[in-house]
Amino acid sequence: MLRWTVTFIILAIIAAIFGFGGIAEGAASIAKVLFFIFLILFVISLFTGRKKI
Q1: Which burial class, exposed, middle or buried, applies to 12 when counting CB atoms under 10 A from its CB (0-12, 13-18, 19+)?
Q2: Sign of the CA dihedral 32, 37, 38, 43?
Q3: How is the chain split into domains, by residue range?
Q4: Distance (Å, whole) CA 50 – CA 11
């Protein structure tokens, strides 16, 4: 999940450099959503992780 976030943020930076504002904005918003999903899943996995018996 985090790898996809980094991929989309790099895509947004490259698109912004070349002047594609709409594509850069879309990629940045996708990266933001994926990052927050990653954070939520990470926190959930911290609380419900494997516990030794």
Answers
A1: buried
A2: positive
A3: 2-47
A4: 35
**Predicted TM-score of the model (pTM):** 0.72
Dist. CA 46–CA 9, nearest whole Å: 26
For tokens 């490259």, the residue is 14
pLDDT tens for each residue of the chain, 53 residues long: 778 888 888 999 999 898 888 888 889 889 899 999 999 988 888 888 876 66
Residue with tokens 């989309």: 8
Q: Could you tell me if 1 and 32 are in contact, meaning their C-beta atoms sit under 8 angstroms apart?
A: no
How far is the C-alpha of 53 from the C-alpha of 46, rounded, in Å?
Answer: 17
